[in-house]
Design goal:
The chain is mainly alpha-helical. About 55% of the residues lie in helices and about 5% in strands. The protein contains 6 helices and 2 strands; from the N terminus they run E-E-H-H-H-H-H-H. Strands 1-2 form a two-stranded antiparallel ribbon.
């Protein structure tokens, strides 16, 4: 089947009319260049947590990682006023790292468990940590060589 986009009038238009890749000089291309620059300099972002959340919700967890890391630096441990935020940032940082650095992801989840044992995110962090351990011990069929028949 052909994909279709719904415009504001409720009519459908073929997805082929949408631009699939940003052309050089286009707004999307400029946005990506700006994002790349900011990722390398997260200090330039006024609200790194907001940037991280936007990227994560856009399906760009890998790109959100440095912003969650910067947000974590800005939240001091042991402050009751920011404890819920810090627990969330640790959880999300672990989620972002799962694809690229499983050891660092597990370390981040365990930090959450150790610092905030009563956080609502702690049980999920434990579960994600156990899953990562299981995946490391049982690689998926895609990551192992198939036997020759």
């Amino acid at each position: 089947g052909q994909l279709a986009e719904v415009n504001t009038m409720g009519q459908t238009t073929p997805a082929s009319t949408a631009v699939a890749t940003p052309a050089e000089g286009s707004a999307a291309s400029k946005t990506q260049k700006t994002l790349d620059t900011l990722r390398q300099n997260p200090d330039q972002v006024r609200d790194p947590l907001e940037m991280a959340e936007l990227l994560f919700l856009s399906g760009r967890a890998k790109e959100a990682t440095p912003f969650y890391a910067k947000a974590l630096e800005n939240i001091s441990p042991g402050d009751p006023a920011t404890e819920a935020d810090r627990a969330w940032v640790l959880f999300q940082l672990g989620n972002c790292l799962r694809e690229t650095d499983t050891a660092k992801a597990q370390e981040t989840y365990m930090k959450l468990v150790a610092e905030y044992p009563t956080s609502p995110w702690t049980e999920l962090a434990k579960a994600h940590g156990r899953l990562l351990t299981w995946y490391q011990k049982n690689p998926s069929p895609q990551t192992t060589a198939s036997p020759q028949l």
